[in-house]
Amino acid sequence: MATLSTIAKLLLAALMAPWIAAGSLHAQENYPTKHIQFISPMTAGGPGDALSRAVATSLSARLHVPVIVQNVPGAGSAIGTGTLARSAPDGYTLGLSTAGTFSINPFLYSKLPYNEEKDFAPISPLVS
Q: Which single residue of 23, 65, 95, 123 could bond 39 by disulfide (Cβ 3.0 to 4.6 Å)?
């Protein structure tokens, strides 16, 4: 059974949450302030390219900036994924990957141009 002290602490935390969140929102800069590059490690014209362009179109409409798709195919997507890994981690370069990029390529290639565990921050699954 919760004590009055515990209930009071929870209530105080719930009441303070909007002010804490509002302060952090105010501190953020406006994003994006320039175009976004979307790297697709798939060949142009294929299903991966179609998905990349659909995502870019949707992001561009929501963020009100151009989202430019750059196809960088080759080596089972390792070349394009390496290009993505070498990009500045500033939020202005996004990319597409497949399950094979991170689960199969490390077993096929002895040396990859990226570290699948350290070089990326996943955002969202697109299809399953």
A: 95
Determine, yes or no, domain membership for 42: yes
**What is the per-residue burial (b if ≥16 Cβ within 10 Å, else e) of 24-40?**
eeeeeeeebeeebbbbb
* CA distances, 3 to each of 17, 70, 88 (Å): 21, 58, 50
pLDDT per residue over 4-57, tens digit each?
566 656 655 655 656 555 555 555 678 899 999 999 999 999 999 999 999 999
Half-sphere exposure of 92 (CA within 13 A, CB side): 11
What's the domain range around 72? 36-108
Residue 126 inside a domain? The answer is: no
pLDDT at 126 over 90: no
Inside any domain, residue 64:
yes
Q: Within 13 Å, how many C-alpha atoms sit on residue 38's CB side?
A: 21
CB-CB contact of 100 with 81 (8 Å):
no
Residue 28 lies in a domain: no
